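User: My collaborator and I are trying to settle a disagreement about how two of our proteins should look. Neither of us wants to argue from intuition anymore, so we agreed to look at predicted structures for both before our next call. Could you fold the first one, then the second, and keep them clearly separated?

Assistant: That sounds like a sensible way to settle it. I'll keep them separate. The first protein:
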Amino acid sequence: MPMYVGQLKSDLDKEDGSLQYILTGEGADSIFFINEHGKIYVRQKLDREKKSFYILRAQVINRKTRLPIEPDSEFIIKVRDINDHEPQFLDGPYVATVPEMSPEGTSVTQVTATDGDDSSYGNNARLLYSLVQGQPYFSVEPKTGVIRMASQMDRETKDQYLVVIQAKDMVGQAGAFSATATVTINLSDVNDNPPKFQQRLYYMNVSEEAPVGTTVGRLLAEDSDIGKNAAMNYFIEGDSSDVFGIITDRETQEGIILLKKRVDYESKRKHSVRVKAVNRYIDDRFLKEGPFEDVTIVQISVVDADESPVFTLDSYVMEIAEGAVSGSLVGIVSARDLDNDDSPVRYSIVQGMHLKRLFSINEHNGTIITTEPLDREKTSWHNITVTATETRNPEKISEANVYIQVLDVNDHAPEFPKYYETFVCENAVPGQLIQSISAVDKDDSEESHQFYFSLAQEATNNSHFTVKDNQDNTAGIFTAVSGFSRQEQFYFFLPILILDNGSPPLTSTNTLTVTVCDCDTEVNTLYCRYGAFLYSIGLSTEALVAVLACLLILLVFFLAIIGIRQQRKKTLFPEKVEEFRENIVRYDDEGGGEEDTEAFDISALRTRTVLRTHKPRKKVTTEIHSLYRQSLQVGPDSAIFRQFISEKLEEANTDPSAPPYDSLQTYAFEGTGSLAGSLSSLGSNMSDMDQNYDYLLGWGPHFKQLAGMYASQRSTRD
């Protein structure tokens, strides 16, 4: 049934039915309609939460003329809210965490419910929060939904709580809608519990053979807290901290007692260790509860064992002068067995075979001597390892390092540190510096090295140069005369005497080679090197240029010859390579002689029926092979042979580009009419003994040698 909303009325409406009201805008006709009296009705239920207002326009027209009698007017219909929505907790489920032992009133979290009703109209959307479950530990603010601590709580007692919050609209009045939400509140840990050892006294054992770093044992101080609040550090108090150490296992929070120093059963059989456990992270708020640490005692007993011998020192440093004769004393090492039986000890060197060759040790008293002279310049320090072994228990071995320093003896004379490349110009003036020199010495010096430079005695009187000692381990080489001639003397060999400050002092003579250079007064090193090179091979600059020019001419001439030959090859033989191969007939099988009747099928070659046609030139090789085989059974008077010769002659005459091989043909039979007759032995039934070669004497000088070989033999036989 339509519900009345309101009425519109024009001042010109006389209620005689002459006017008509028209409604337009949002929901006109579909939701709202207006009658002839201007009353507005709604056709259906409205939901404010979907649309809270509608904008409409009303117009009054004359029914007859259909013309407006007034301007249209706009009005708004607002939908008034009613309480038709329940509160909702949209952000649930809620989980909150608060530190344990938090003071009363500490905020835990806030829950918020929403209501779809109009909060600006009445109390439909005004919510009120209350606690359904969670007393007496928590409380909730009625208007804000903030949950607070109502008392201090210990996580170690209970670490999780479920709190139920209710929200009611209409400020909790009768007929109000409500909703509830569950909040899971977890108590986080704080460091409010100190570590505690379960025992006041612990017992452990360690062998006196145990090496440094051995784990002696573990102990645990328990802490009710968790995570980092249960993390702790362990300490060893008192003198025992020199022998034992303790670290914390980060996973289990156990204290691990380690051996920091070897223990000795014979010296001390029991150690009382005071161990303290302290929380790593301390909360100052709970310091009033007492110190967050605990102390216990660990009694560690040393277990006796058969120990290895012990050297009097962990390492030895010894000295010996270089060059000392073989068998010289270097030093003595000593080790003893600390056990009660006091077993004898045997010594040996085990560090490297080369050190065994340099040193030896007396296995009974530990005396180390040299086996050959030592050279400090080769090796200034020698490191050897000496072992001491119990004679009664060879498995018990100990080691000690021995460092042997070879003391220096002044046995090396000073010398030039490098080869000096020294030049002097032909036009040099007296007193001109041409080279600075220095020296090195392989020996050590207790003080800094000091070198003294001078000319050797044999070069003092007639030298063209002088040496000036700079008193700083360097010296300068100066010219003593003016003018040098390369033609007269190209090299000067200057003996330099160098003296060191060793004990005793040593001297050496080092030769400085001075090369005369073709320059004015300033030396150009590259130019002078070039001049020295030419002098060494015995050439002048002009001669070297001439040699290079000749080599260049020969190279050009050689390249020209190669070019001409390549051009001739291209001009004389332009044909392709395969054309040259047409005149090569090759058989890779060898017959067995005249009596071989199985190598070839002779009957196939005896046919006299030959069909020959003119073929292109590119197949001439095949044609030659065919005709050649046919000609084996025909003679020079055969028509087939004459036809073959005529065709080949015609091809050679009509082909101007054919190479010369067309004029050379090889056939399997000889021609007739020769004055010499046949020279072939094929088909001959006579031996050389039955033939007369005297006719060769009349053939002229070209056959003189042949006639001499056969005619003379015949005459001799006759």
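The second protein, kept apart from the first:
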Amino acid sequence: MPGARRSLASPVVSGVLCPCGSPHGSAVESGSGGGGGNAGSCGRSVCEASEQDRRLRALFQKLDVNRDGALCIHDLAVGLGRLGLHRTELDLRKIVKAGDKDLDGQLDFEEFVHYLQDHEKKLRLVFKSLDKKNDGRIDAQEIVQSLRDLGVKISEQQAEKILKRIRTGHFWGPVTYMDKNGTMTIDWNEWRDYHLLHPVENIPEIILYWKHSTIFDVGENLTVPDEFTVEERQTGMWWRHLVAGGGAGAVSRTCTAPLDRLKVLMQVHASRSNNMCIIGGFTQMIREGGPRSLWRGNGINVLKIAPESAIKFMAYEQIKRFIGTDQEMLRIHERLLAGSLAGAIAQSSIYPMEVLKTRMALRKTGQYSGMLDCAKNILAKEGMAAFYKGYIPNMLGIIPYAGIDLAVYETLKNTWLQRYAVNSADPGVFVLLACGTISSTCGQLASYPLALVRTRMQAQASVEGAPEVTMRGLFKHILKTEGAFGLYRGLAPNFMKVIPAVSISYVVYENLKMTLGVDSR
């Protein structure tokens, strides 16, 4: 066809799929005369089944270098090289792993066909996520926007360079020079033809690798929820991620509960006249109630994970729709807004459980028989309003915690992707844990004074003779009597639990993912 743009892909590869986008269709045969066949969605002749099979088999035979009826990594390397498509060994391993259903380390013809079908679906999702204008083409501005949505900043000139030359080996690798006429755009046919035999290294894949809030649980569930890709939502993987994250949080909180209770005790009882240290605090708890007392308040702390996570996720999805964006991924400031509002809604819904957790952690031996008894006592003696003591500083603490946590995490992620993402967007376990630990620690540090005031307000009725004070009055009192240092009482045990909490969360999360059938990326 005159003026048609040409792909750098081999004609054999290009002919595997019909330009109408039909799964593993053939290249279109132009019909002669008026009665050659029915028109397909592309307006050309419908692909014939025998022609499809012939072309697929021809491609398979070209790739089957050793003629044994199966494609191994060596076959793909040599065969694709002959077609002008050079792939790294890592790419080839991904292709074989994706299509190898019988786990024999190679692809027979049926597995090869299924791989092509499944791969085209993934390519459509990637193309759609990059095509912000929904005009069927990808240009430099859309590449810039897609990367900025993830916190990766590049100039339009850099994006044009990505379009001009092949950049496989970088995290934006799929976007390559496939158009020889200089229009600086890529349409669906060019995208599909070139990447038909290339593992999907794409923008949504960065999201899959860089999960944050579903993995890291340091006891303060104020992080901005993670984004889930279209594929994860369609396949139902999102709820498995949430369940795995909830289970990981439960184990992590239980393992670090003694440090969490010590933090609460130091926040409420420590002062200049009562300088409680870590060893002294543990000794005091064990002397008063035995080793089991170290876990007081942990039960309610674990129970509130499920409702809080579920409410936050549902609220986050609804707020995304209210914002009105039709993009798969929100921009950074939209994520912060939606995440903070969702966190506020979730915290408001379960806040009485927060008060119960503090009271249970501070209780004396024999004071309450359990959580229900504690709730009944509070309701009878202090009224319903007691369940919302410290509510305002808690709500105010969401913004600095979520904002700093998200900003630091995105900055660290962006820095790593720019400097070290050579072969994949996968950061590896150590980098992921380090980034999550640093960002969560910074978020906690920024919001800690508000968290301390919240805890003291929640505990007011359980401290004999404690006057009823406002948030502002409590800040003034602490600064006057203890100085600025008084706003950070209990910070040491709080930071001591971060690394074990993150490590335990990650290990349990990965194991639960495997149990629930979630593929580890």
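Some points you might bring to the call about the second protein. The chain has two domains: 51-213, 230-516. The first helix runs from residue 11 to 14.
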